[in-house]
Write a structure and sequence with these properties.
- By secondary structure, the protein is of the alpha/beta class.
- Helix content is 38%, strand content 19%.
- It contains eight helices and eleven strands.
- The protein has helices spanning 52-62, 72-77, 97-108, 110-114, 125-132, 147-158, 195-219, 221-230; strands at 9-15, 18-24, 48-50, 65-68, 78-80, 84-85, 89-91, 119-121, 138-142, 163-167, 181-183.
- The strands form four sheets. The protein has a five-stranded parallel beta sheet with strand order 3-10-9-4-6, with helices on both faces. It has a two-stranded antiparallel sheet with strand order 1-2.
- α6 (147-158) links the parallel β9 and β10 (163-167).
- α7 packs across α8 (221-230).
- The protein is elongated and about 75 Å long.
- 21% of the residues are buried.
Length: 234
């Protein structure tokens, strides 16, 4: 029996830091199967990390679909228009003694000052994504700071998704007007809540009052002295 000769061509290409390999026969057909006496070769795609402008290009030019993995509260404050929403963490409403103690401590500190909900890992995250998007989809995974999107991308990659990108440092770095957004605030401010935001407003008001008082005393010293004389002495 005549032998079958094969010649292989190894080609590589890159776009935004991602590379892939293609093995072809001499007649340009893809060669299936394994090499004799060798282990099978698996080429693993890497998650792209891009800035906001590069992310916008991925959506407009390459057809990436946006997957928002933030919790419900941040998503409702502001999100990119026409995105999918599957939270990586969901509100923890378990009522075992340990969870109740942790939730109480959380609500009295992080929840009170930063407006963060008490959450747990969403056990149905991957399945929920697969029910809406196929593993062949090109996904731009976003969150507020960039940590949850990286964790979500890793889980999706392990589940068969191979075209994934994330915005480095998350939506907090996105300038107003970069994306069409929906909500009561800008995307970059969606993570701000709780007493911290109120404290910031109070500090701004007090700062303005102090600056005005300083300018009044500097430019109108006689009037300022008269006002001081009118003040009651304890």
């Amino acid at each position: 029996m005549a032998g079958i000769g094969l010649c292989s061509s190894l080609s590589s290409s890159s776009n935004l830091g991602t590379s892939w390999l293609v093995l072809k026969s001499h007649n340009a057909r893809t060669v299936p199967g394994k090499l004799p006496g060798r282990r099978s070769l698996t080429i693993k795609a890497e998650v792209k990390y891009v800035n906001a402008e590069e992310a916008k290009e991925l959506i407009a030019v390459e057809g990436y679909t946006i997957l928002d993995v933030r919790d419900k509260t941040q998503f409702e404050r502001a999100h990119i228009k026409s995105c999918y929403h599957v939270p990586l963490f969901i509100e923890n409403q378990d009522n075992d003694p340990g969870t109740i103690i942790k939730r109480t401590l959380h609500n009295n500190f992080s929840g009170l000052f930063f407006g963060l909900p008490f959450t747990k890992l969403n056990p149905d995250f991957v399945q929920s994504v697969k029910s809406q998007l196929s593993p062949e989809s090109k996904l731009l995974v976003v969150c507020q700071e960039g940590l949850r999107s990286a964790a979500a991308a890793k889980r999706l990659e392990q589940s068969g998704f191979s075209n994934i990108a994330c915005i480095t440092s998350g939506l907090q770095t996105v300038k107003p007007g970069t994306f069409d957004s929906v909500g009561s605030t800008e995307l970059q401010n969606a993570g701000k809540a709780g007493l911290v935001t109120i404290q910031g407003k109070i500090s701004a008001v007090l700062g303005t009052v102090l600056v005005c008082a300083y300018l009044f005393i500097t430019f109108f010293p006689e009037q300022a002295e008269k006002l001081f004389q009118l003040a009651p002495v304890g």
